[in-house]
Amino acid sequence: xxxxxxxxxxxxxxxxxxxxxxxGVTGSSPRTVGSALVVTGDGDVVGSLSSGCVEAAVVAAAVxxxxxxxxxxxxxxxxxxxxxxxxxxxxxxxxxxxxxVDDPSVFLDLRARIAARTPCALVxxxxxxxxxxxxTTAQRYEPNSPWNRVDRYSxxxxxxxxxxxxxxxxxNNGDEAAxxxxxxxxxxxxxxxxxxxxxxxDFVRALxxxxxxxxxxxxxxxxxxxxxxxxxxxxxxAVVVDWPDRYLRAEHAAGRLDGRTVVAVMTHDDKFDVxxxxxxxxxxxxxxxxxLGSRRTHADRRSRLVDAGVAPEDLSxxxxxxxxxxxxxxxxxxxxxxxAQIIAVRSDASARPLSILNGPIHR
Length: 363
Hints:
The protein is an alpha/beta fold. The chain has three domains: about 1-100, no CATH class; about 105-190, no CATH class; about 195-345, NAD(P)-binding Rossmann-like Domain (Rossmann fold, 3-Layer(aba) Sandwich), CATH 3.40.50. It contains eleven helices and 15 strands. The strands form three sheets. A six-stranded parallel beta sheet has the order 12-11-10-13-14-15, with helices on both faces.
């Protein structure tokens, strides 16, 4: 999408154009979700959706979309029956949304936010009439907004830097009053959120695996070179040998941490724990700051944090002991407990059993 954004803005300023984007992929595909091409009224094409095997059919559909203004939803896949049918030679399937763009204002807003490195998403209805908006992580929609029904789903995708279709009956279990019946395509323009794990033990390794499944880019940091090795943490995106508090301060100064960042302190050593927690609580408003340990450890650690000058309002943001009450014993069970709490905090959810709650499951 980024490679055609300028052409889309310039072209739609002059006359209506068609924007075609991959909104779903099954199996193997030469391009990923969010890949796009633009077709102008003069028939010029910018961008690509495949290695060339579906472009002609997409362009033909795009010409009709420009003429009628009606969006089109197309599927292309490999065909074992008709080798001359339009499809992907790699055997996969793609879903393509084609829409007419008459006004570049939303895309100008999108381009400005991307240039400012603001995590954002382009949200577009699938079906007529075409509606679009640019969503940020901090944005909330009013109850009478056409977007409020898919607000949480859209922000959940943006929070982890993923794109996809949300909304419709498959999300609200057929209850129209509980959610938006019209699906929307959420195209995120954000890197994966970061999770910084201080420590190099089995619990860190288990949480690394779980966090990667949830879409986090995981960094394991520990000052002990013997333990902090890529071989011990094969699923981590990075393994850093450094004092965790010093690493946090350097990453913050470099602008590589933001409001989606999770910091989990799991070193079990005061000389590492306390400085790292102090840094995590005072550098910025991260999405989650937690520390592993028993209640006795937490009480002792809290007094040390007070002695270190951490303000009460900052201390209130520390999740310690970290995790939910699952009676978790193994590193893997503990990782599930911690990950569940992170999701609940990120979503401002209660983390209580659904069976004792009333109202819609998906708020």
